[in-house]
Amino acid sequence: MSDMLTKWGPRVAKRGFAQIPNYLLELNRFVDDEHKLSATESLTLIHLVASWWKKDEMPFPSMRTLSERSGVSERQVQRALKSLEGKGYFRKERKRIKTVISSNVYDLTPTAKILDEIADHYGNAHPRKIKPTAAHPGRESKPVPKPDAPPAS
């Protein structure tokens, strides 16, 4: 966070940041013409992804929220969402509280799968070092020795 403070200043840093995969930002470079996104579709998808904080908790921003964040009308957001769903970037589900439908939930698993396939097919000229996780045990990194432990040979 200190890099964020230094780079952007405290007022901007306090507003927060979103993790957006670079493959998503450059999506149109990698997909065929029928799956390319318009500017409004891209921005809408980016704001959906920015609302997805936990893997097992799908985002559910309202049309109004997406409209305000994107700077376009709610009708444009509706058209973008319909197109994105038709192109297979997400599945829309209904969020229910008891028996009342409270909002749409957007399952972005298809977008994650698309980006993973893109990563598999297109080389990464500037890979970042990442630590292995329980979800992705195949990722390799050198073990970090404990401070009191002798170096590994």
How would you characterize this protein structure?
15% of the residues are buried. α4 (39-50) crosses α5 (63-70) and α4 crosses α6. The protein has helices at residues 2-8, 10-15, 22-25, 39-50, 63-70, 74-86, 109-121, and strands at residues 91-97, 100-107. The protein has 153 residues and is mostly helical. Strands 1-2 form a two-stranded antiparallel sheet. β1 and β2 form a beta hairpin. It is globular, with a radius of gyration of 19 Å. The longest helix is centred in the middle third of the chain and has 13 residues, at 74-86. Helix content is 41%, strand content 10%.
- Major β-sheet, in short? 2 strands, antiparallel
Element string (H = helix, E = strand): HHHHHHEEH
Shape: globular
Taking the alpha carbons of the first and last residues, their distance comes to: 34 Å
Roughly what fraction of the amino acids lie in strands? 5-15%
Structural class: mainly alpha
Number of strands: 2
How many H/I helical runs? Answer: 7
What is the average of the pLDDT values?
83
Low-confidence stretches: 139-153
Radius of gyration: 19 Å
Strand order of the largest sheet: 1-2
Give the helix proportion (percent range). Answer: 40-55%
Question: Which terms would index this structure?
Answer:
single chain, 153 residues, mainly alpha, 7 helices, 41% helix, 10% strand, globular, disordered C terminus
